[in-house]
Amino acid sequence: MSLLPRLRLALARRPWLYWLLVCVCGATVWLGLAAAHTRADRARTQWGTTRSVWVARTAIAAGDPLLATVHQYPSAMVPASALSSAPDDATAAHTIAAGEVLVAADLERGGALPADWLVFTVPGDRAPLLSAGDHVAVFGSGQQWCDGVVVGADAQASGGQVEVGVPGGCAAALSAQLALDAVTLARST
């Protein structure tokens, strides 16, 4: 008699062997899942301190109200301008993907900039053709200093001025670069 029929006969005569095998398989799976969960928790604690940030719940089109939830992320992964308070009465300044961490530049409050932002006037001859609401990267002396939002552009095509709102932390650097006449703007998405 071959091995498989003998095994089936033994299991038919002793059903407790079948249930013992089921319990052993179940315990093996449970131990494997518990070990994976423990490894994930250990890795999470190695990330360091976490920070609460607001994340887009769904994909949001420009001008739509922000639907956001709070998530915990490692501090090293969170952008410096990430929102730490609820984005009340705000709309999206541009398209935002689902799960994206919301930053100050993502908000549009009736055309107003966030409270800690400052507006600088930059020569329009060092920028692409821009209009109010465009997001820009601010460069000076060959390096990128910060990101900003165009508040207004005055006859830019004929060498006019561009008003750019930037975060307060970037204001000193941008002021110094403007004094050196070394500021260049680039449209960003």
List keywords for this structure.
189 residues; alpha+beta; Type Iii Antifreeze Protein Isoform Hplc 12; five-stranded antiparallel sheet; two-stranded antiparallel sheet; elongated
Q: Your description of this structure?
A:
- The chain is of the alpha+beta class.
- Among the domains are: 50-108, Type Iii Antifreeze Protein Isoform Hplc 12, CATH 3.90.1210; 117-188.
- 28% of the residues lie in helices and 30% in strands.
- It has three helices and nine strands.
- The protein has helices spanning 3-13, 15-46, 171-179, and strands at residues 50-56, 68-74, 91-92, 107-108, 117-123, 135-140, 143-154, 161-167, 183-188.
- The strands form three sheets. It has a five-stranded antiparallel sheet with strand order 5-8-7-6-9.
- A hairpin with a 2-residue loop joins strand 6 (135-140) and strand 7 (143-154).
- Helix 1 packs across helix 2.
- The chain is elongated, with a radius of gyration of 29 Å.
- The model has no long low-confidence stretch (mean pLDDT 83).
Quick recap of the structure?
The protein is an alpha+beta fold and 189 residues long. Among the domains are: 59 residues, Alpha-Beta Complex (Type Iii Antifreeze Protein Isoform Hplc 12), CATH 3.90.1210; 72 residues. It is 28% helix and 30% strand.
